[in-house]
Protein: Prephenate dehydratase
Amino acid sequence: MKVGFLGPEASFTHTATKTAFPADELISYHSIPACIKGVEFGEVDLGVVPIENTIEGSVNTTVDYLFHQTTIPVGAEIVLPIFQQLMVSKENKGSWQETTKILSHPQALAQSQEFIHAYFPMADLDATPSTAYAANFVALHPEQKIAAIAPRLSAEKYDLEIVGQDIQDVAINETRFWVIGSEKVDVPIKSSDYKLTIALTMPNNMPGALHKALSAFSWREIDLSKIESRPLKTTLGEYFFLIDINVQKPQQLLDNALEEIRLLGGTVKIFGNYAIHPINGV
Structure:
C-alpha cells in the first residue's frame, strides 16, 4: 500500500506516518493540498495530513480543502507529541547565537515564539513548506548564519547540530493528524477513543439557527469536544461549523441528531467516524 504524507522525510508528519504504517511505501508531498490531491487522483491509497496543534489550533489549509474541494473520508486520527529543536549546520555550532534568520513551517515558528523573542528578537523568520524542508535548506547552506526549527529526526537526517532543545512554548505540545482515503483504516497503534467529525451549515435567515442545531446534540446528551467556525468563502459573514463529537452514544442516536439538523434546514458533511491513536515515546 502507498501512503502519502506532508514531506520531506524527517518532518513531524513523516514521523507520524512511518509509525502508523511501518511496512508500507511512503510517498512525500511538498504541501497539504498536494497530498490530498494524491489521494484524490489515486497516486496513493491513503494520505496523512496535520489537522490541529495544541498551541496553534486547527490547520486551516487541511480543514478548508477537505470541506470545499473533496469528499475524501477520514479513516483514523494519529496524535503525536511535538518537540521543537533549534538546529544549525555543524560549521555554525560555535556561533549559533549570531543567527540572522530562522526557517521553519509557520506552525513551528508560531509554537516557538517565546524562545525566538528571548534569544533572536532581531532575526528574520522565513516560512517554509515543512520543518524538514527548513532543516535541509540549512544543511545545504552552511555558509549562511541561518537556523531551522524542526524535529530531532531532521537533525539526524541532515547532519545538523541541535543548539536549542525542546523550545516549544508549551511543554505538552501535540499535533493531530488525519489519515484520509478510506472510511476505516487499521493502524498498529492502540486506540484511545472514537470521534465523529462533521461540518455544519445553517440557513442565514433563521433566528437562533446555531443554538437550534446544537440543541439536537444537547438534549440527547451527546458530548461535543470541539466547535469552531470557518468562512464559507461565498459571502462575507457566512460560515460553516467544524464539530468534533465524542462517540459514546449509540450510532442511531447520533444519526437521529444529524437528521434533526437536516430537518431544521441545515446541511451536514461527515468527514469521518474514526478511532484516535496516540503515539507515545517518539
Remarks:
- The mean pLDDT is 92.
